[in-house]
């Protein structure tokens, strides 16, 4: 058994000693069977959150209404979820109320895909009523129970199928795929926040190109924010070997391929409810990319963009030109390292200096002069030293 599970065995034992059942479940069991790194160990139990709080002294309520609490055990946080059913679904969304139950089997039955519905006890014994291990062996994504019914209950599961397709490169089972096509419109009811989580996981997956294509093929794209007109665009991504790009770089690639104008990009990203910070970064990168596809970098822009933006812009450009993603990165890094200054604050002249040297009160002229000095330093027309800058600025003022 993997170390992450080993470490949590005493936690399972403690729950069992109190008279309840406890198992490893979900993504961690699936990933372990796939011999993949496991991030978090998820635990399912017959004990209710209240009962767990009596067993463990250190707990945090994270989603108690869904039956999940975090137990801090030997300094490690574990998500422990009470067995539950989701009997009532309203408007194809997750139920507002969950029912706690004492049966593992019923808990596994409410899970989305057979590969995610496997439990493992502390001895490494599997409880796999839906043949999840077989699905993993056959590399197939298949709903637990009737696909159409399961998508009626919670339409996000369709999106999850495609994101697992991206992450795992499994095939989506034919019946499940057909049900996605016939139920795709139900995705309309799902909140943007939940769609975003799955979409970004999809963008990070190794099979992302096919997954984006699948969004187009299954019609799911129609019910994603700002995507109604993007059928062609999503298919076009297939031309680009983009699997090494980060999620933020993928957003930029999408906006570029969708031919989104600068003034439209904010609205596009807002519909996806991306954070202000992320929106700003993506829009900035898009601007640099548009510049870069037609021009080479010049000192001023290297300075303005900064190292992170330069390398991201270059990586996306390389993908668009079907070149190795790292092409030119070293050359540009060297060019950047040679810039005499990397930040405006490094310029050895300030607004106060200017007022003193020119005997003038503050005004827009200060910004102009500082920018001129900055440019001159970047192009090595003048040394970034206070005396040299003073001499240069006064001389320029005469001309
Ligand atoms: P990841 O490695 O990305 O975290 P995961 O399988 O752990 O993948 P989570 O979103 O963390 O996915 O969910 C944990 C488990 O909860 C899943 O494995 C699945 O059993 C169940 N689950 C999550 N979302 C749903 C859903 N919408 N419907 C049914 N079961 C779900
Ligand atoms: Mg998980």
UniProtKB/TrEMBL annotation:
Top-level class of the enzyme under EC nomenclature: transferase
Residue intervals of the CCA-adding enzyme C-terminal domain: 247-393
One Gene Ontology term of the molecular function aspect: CCA tRNA nucleotidyltransferase activity
Reaction equation(s) it catalyzes: a tRNA precursor + 2 CTP + ATP = a tRNA with a 3' CCA end + 3 diphosphate; a tRNA with a 3' CCA end + 2 CTP + ATP = a tRNA with a 3' CCACCA end + 3 diphosphate
EC number: 2.7.7.72
Keyword Metal-binding in annotation: yes
Function: Catalyzes the addition and repair of the essential 3'-terminal CCA sequence in tRNAs without using a nucleic acid template. Adds these three nucleotides in the order of C, C, and A to the tRNA nucleotide-73, using CTP and ATP as substrates and producing inorganic pyrophosphate. tRNA 3'-terminal CCA addition is required both for tRNA processing and repair. Also involved in tRNA surveillance by mediating tandem CCA addition to generate a CCACCA at the 3' terminus of unstable tRNAs. While stable tRNAs receive only 3'-terminal CCA, unstable tRNAs are marked with CCACCA and rapidly degraded.
Subunit structure: Homodimer.
Family of the protein in this entry: Belongs to the tRNA nucleotidyltransferase/poly(A) polymerase family. Bacterial CCA-adding enzyme type 3 subfamily.
Identification of the protein by name: CCA-adding enzyme
Species the sequence originates in: Cytobacillus citreus
Gene: cca
């Amino acid at each position: 058994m993997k170390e992450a599970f080993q470490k949590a065995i005493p936690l399972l034992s403690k729950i069992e000693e109190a008279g309840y059942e406890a198992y490893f479940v979900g993504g961690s069991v699936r990933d372990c069977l796939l011999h993949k790194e496991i991030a978090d160990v998820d635990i399912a139990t017959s004990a209710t959150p209240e009962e767990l709080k009596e067993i463990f002294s250190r707990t945090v309520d994270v989603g108690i209404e869904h039956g999940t609490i975090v137990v801090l055990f030997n300094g490690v946080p574990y998500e422990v979820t009470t067995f539950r059913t989701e009997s009532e679904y309203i408007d194809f969304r997750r139920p507002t109320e969950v029912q706690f139950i004492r049966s593992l089997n019923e808990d596994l039955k409410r899970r989305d895909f057979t590969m995610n519905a496997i439990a493992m006890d502390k001895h490494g014994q599997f409880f796999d009523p839906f043949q999840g291990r077989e699905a993993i062996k056959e590399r197939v994504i298949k709903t637990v129970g009737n696909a159409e019914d399961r998508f009626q209950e919670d339409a996000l599961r369709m999106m999850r199928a495609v994101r697992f397709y991206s992450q795992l490169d499994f095939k989506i089972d034919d019946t499940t795929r057909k049900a996605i096509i016939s139920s795709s419109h139900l995705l309309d009811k799902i909140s943007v926040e939940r769609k975003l989580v799955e979409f970004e996981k999809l963008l990070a997956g190794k099979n992302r190109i096919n997954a984006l294509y699948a969004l187009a093929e299954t019609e799911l794209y129609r019910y994603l924010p700002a995507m109604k007109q993007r059928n062609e665009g999503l298919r076009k991504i297939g031309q680009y070997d983009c699997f090494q790009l980060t999620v933020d770089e993928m957003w930029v690639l999408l906006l570029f391929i969708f031919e989104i104008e600068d003034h439209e990009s904010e609205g596009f990203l807002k519909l996806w409810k991306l954070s202000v910070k992320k929106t700003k970064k993506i829009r900035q990168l898009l601007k640099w990319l548009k510049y870069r596809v037609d021009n080479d970098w010049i000192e001023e822009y290297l300075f303005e963009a900064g190292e992170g933006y330069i390398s991201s812009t270059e990586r996306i450009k390389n993908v668009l030109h079907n070149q190795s993603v790292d092409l030119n990165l070293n050359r540009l890094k060297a060019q950047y390292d040679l810039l005499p200054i990397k930040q405006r604050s490094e310029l050895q002249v300030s607004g106060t200096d200017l007022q003193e040297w020119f005997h003038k009160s503050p005004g827009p002229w200060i910004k102009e002069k500082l920018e001129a000095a900055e440019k001159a330093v970047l192009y090595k027309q003048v040394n970034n030293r206070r005396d040299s800058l003073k001499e240069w600025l006064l001389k320029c003022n005469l001309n």
